[in-house]
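Box 3.1. Reading complex inputs
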Amino acid sequence: GAVVSQHPSWVICKSGTSVKIECRSLDFQATTMFWYRQFPKQSLMLMATSNEGSKATYEQGVEKDKFLINHASLTLSTLTVTSAHPEDSSFYICSARGGNRWDQPQHFGDGTRLSIL
Amino acid sequence: KNQVEQSPQSLIILEGKNCTLQCNYTVSPFSNLRWYKQDTGRGPVSLTIMTFSENTKSNGRYTATLDADTKQSSLHITASQLSDSASYICVVTRNNDMRFGAGTRLTVKP
């Protein structure tokens, strides 16, 4: 089946550091990629949706200058958390879809646990 | 208020037993409903997907039901195994908008 690889799986860094998370679709072309954040015992919260070659669409309340998303190719999207602070500590998950239609399946990566000291 | 409510919040059962997880939603109009399994520290994995015209969908020991009139879905797990311990998330889609439930944390004990 379709595989989405997320890297790194775990990051611990100091406050003020910028952190880049990669999301790759390994065996299909991901026209659309999604980035989620999940706090303990809570549901996934959509942060942004990105289509290859265009700017990401951010959900209300998500700072686009804080969370930089790049979807430069059909197999790679990156999320950069700029000047990370302890409150940015969370589980970040990406998902990828092979088209723009809502009924096409989304395949999730295994997530990145970000801990800011 | 979340448009997708799941119950119970957590559940502990003995290995080999059956269990049923509930999902009530108010999302409208409704496109499809999915159940995902999320192991701790991993991404969600799709179990079933149903459109409004489908009443039931099975995937091995997992059977999902849907009542679009009452806006309720359930996920039934038969003959539970230790590996079933995970969070089960109900996701309701309206056009391109996916609404996630908070999940039910299932623990299967030997």
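In summary: The first strand of chain A starts at residue 4 and ends at 7.
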